[in-house]
Amino acid sequence: MKRVHNFNAGPSAMPLSVLQEVQAEFLDYAGTGMSVIEMSHRSDSYQTLQAETETLLRDLLHIPKDYHIVFMQGGGSMQFVMHALNFLHCRGGYINTGVWSDKAMKAAAAFGEVYEVASTKAEGFTHIPRVLPQAIKAQTDYIYLTSNNTIHGTQWQTYPQVDIPLFGDLSSDFLSRPIPISQFDLIFAGAQKNIGPAGVVVGIIKDTLLDKAKRDIPDMLRYDTYVKHHSVYNTPPVFCIYFIYKVLQWVQQQGGVEKIAQRNKEKADMIYEVIDQSNGFYRGHADIQSRSVMNITFHLATPELEKMFLQASLQNNMIGLKGHRLLGGCRASLYNAVTEESCASLATFMKSFQQAH
Ligand code: PMP
């Protein structure tokens, strides 16, 4: 069996043991004589599985009782629409830290006034801005932020304290570190980085926020439809949710989100150390204090050298190191399932490539 060192930005590496377990029980889930994708979403077997998935997630992230957990479809991009469709009455304040917050703000503009509470666009999204309370306009329904900027490689270290609802897109760092849930009213995360296969979004919604939702919107786009129907208003993405359950069990076996966070920090440090000690051979995109533990973005001196670097990486069994087309350069995504061994191999490769060039 060939397995690569997988530095893809998403969809991305999943824990090998989870993939093997899913493979082993694919034809016969828990002695039912059926695959999990062949059974009714209303069956006891499936309902139990989904309920256990929720319970485990609640335990691992210490999600308080007054928050609902829901599973939705349509990816992060549907959330760019849904959060505003439900909760934008007057105006929404956006902290613009990259492509994904920019997109969310543009999608939300269809439903009301949107404005930037803070933005680092003019500085090439190299850092996380400070949020000044005076920048928040009267009658702002919520403040929206992107926790980890997958493309530019920056990440909030601590979230801003605001006295209106805070919404967070945690798609690319969900489950990678503890989350101060009660600082938020709405959190969403597409699964395809740390949690499972593309096709499901996990939502965490404060109960009191639901009272503020618009009433005259389609059922399928209302958060409270998912809450009231325990995410089975229609057929949920059963395979994705099953897979999430397996990943959550794996997280638990690793010692929980706190332990995972520590490991992720050590993994990222291995690569940032190489960048910092390279005398400018590798140039990190993000300012040091805003650096992401999940996505490490860097440039080499010329596009030609970057091309050589990427070609050499492929020869060393490493994939996914090409930067996003909007930023260029290189990017190493070190999600939860990327092993220490893969990170050490990348660090060694980067050092030897520098020596050779
Ligand atoms: N938010 C973030 C932080 C992302 O990285 C992405 C894409 N990877 C999205 C939203 C969009 O997600 P999707 O492709 O599921 O619509």
From TrEMBL:
<comment type="similarity">
    <text>Belongs to the class-V pyridoxal-phosphate-dependent aminotransferase family. SerC subfamily.</text>
</comment>
<protein>
    <recommendedName>
        <fullName>Phosphoserine aminotransferase</fullName>
        <ecNumber>2.6.1.52</ecNumber>
    </recommendedName>
</protein>
<dbReference type="InterPro" id="IPR015424">
    <property type="entry name" value="PyrdxlP-dep_Trfase"/>
</dbReference>
<keyword id="KW-0663">Pyridoxal phosphate</keyword>
<dbReference type="InterPro" id="IPR022278">
    <property type="entry name" value="Pser_aminoTfrase"/>
</dbReference>
<comment type="subunit">
    <text>Homodimer.</text>
</comment>
<keyword id="KW-0028">Amino-acid biosynthesis</keyword>
<keyword id="KW-0963">Cytoplasm</keyword>
<feature type="binding site">
    <location>
        <position position="150"/>
    </location>
    <ligand>
        <name>pyridoxal 5'-phosphate</name>
    </ligand>
</feature>
<dbReference type="GO" id="GO:0005737">
    <property type="term" value="C:cytoplasm"/>
</dbReference>
<comment type="pathway">
    <text>Amino-acid biosynthesis; L-serine biosynthesis; L-serine from 3-phospho-D-glycerate: step 2/3.</text>
</comment>
<feature type="modified residue" description="N6-(pyridoxal phosphate)lysine">
    <location>
        <position position="193"/>
    </location>
</feature>
<feature type="binding site">
    <location>
        <position position="100"/>
    </location>
    <ligand>
        <name>pyridoxal 5'-phosphate</name>
    </ligand>
</feature>
<feature type="domain" description="Aminotransferase class V">
    <location>
        <begin position="5"/>
        <end position="342"/>
    </location>
</feature>
<dbReference type="InterPro" id="IPR015421">
    <property type="entry name" value="PyrdxlP-dep_Trfase_major"/>
</dbReference>
<dbReference type="GO" id="GO:0006564">
    <property type="term" value="P:L-serine biosynthetic process"/>
</dbReference>
<dbReference type="InterPro" id="IPR015422">
    <property type="entry name" value="PyrdxlP-dep_Trfase_small"/>
</dbReference>
<dbReference type="Pfam" id="PF00266">
    <property type="entry name" value="Aminotran_5"/>
</dbReference>
<feature type="binding site">
    <location>
        <position position="192"/>
    </location>
    <ligand>
        <name>pyridoxal 5'-phosphate</name>
    </ligand>
</feature>
<keyword id="KW-0718">Serine biosynthesis</keyword>
<keyword id="KW-0808">Transferase</keyword>
<keyword id="KW-0032">Aminotransferase</keyword>
<feature type="binding site">
    <location>
        <position position="169"/>
    </location>
    <ligand>
        <name>pyridoxal 5'-phosphate</name>
    </ligand>
</feature>
<comment type="function">
    <text>Catalyzes the reversible conversion of 3-phosphohydroxypyruvate to phosphoserine and of 3-hydroxy-2-oxo-4-phosphonooxybutanoate to phosphohydroxythreonine.</text>
</comment>
<feature type="binding site">
    <location>
        <begin position="234"/>
        <end position="235"/>
    </location>
    <ligand>
        <name>pyridoxal 5'-phosphate</name>
    </ligand>
</feature>
<dbReference type="InterPro" id="IPR000192">
    <property type="entry name" value="Aminotrans_V_dom"/>
</dbReference>
<dbReference type="GO" id="GO:0004648">
    <property type="term" value="F:O-phospho-L-serine:2-oxoglutarate aminotransferase activity"/>
</dbReference>
<feature type="binding site">
    <location>
        <begin position="76"/>
        <end position="77"/>
    </location>
    <ligand>
        <name>pyridoxal 5'-phosphate</name>
    </ligand>
</feature>
<dbReference type="GO" id="GO:0030170">
    <property type="term" value="F:pyridoxal phosphate binding"/>
</dbReference>
<feature type="binding site">
    <location>
        <position position="42"/>
    </location>
    <ligand>
        <name>L-glutamate</name>
    </ligand>
</feature>
